[in-house]
Write a structure and sequence with these properties.
Keywords: Coiled coil. With 68 residues, the protein is mainly α. The chain contains 2 helices and no strands.
């Protein structure tokens, strides 16, 4: 059962990393347009940050910060 959980977490982590990269490209593209929508840009950045937080949480499950 633990192996299935790890596989599911790894899959989710890979998907989130890809979505984060995609949003990074979208933010960069939108920011470089001369008449970009500031609200849309803010929303993309917020979503990107939420995904980054989820990625960090998943990584912490795989690599717990053990203080000896």
């Amino acid at each position: 059962m633990a192996q299935m959980d790890n596989d599911a977490l790894r899959t989710e982590l890979a998907q989130l990393r890809q979505e984060h990269r995609d949003l990074d490209v979208a933010v960069e593209a939108l920011a470089t347009t001369s008449n970009h929508d500031a609200l849309q840009l803010q929303r993309l950045k917020k979503k990107k940050l939420m995904i980054k937080d989820r990625i960090s949480a998943l990584e912490d499950q795989f690599f717990p910060d053990i203080i000896a």
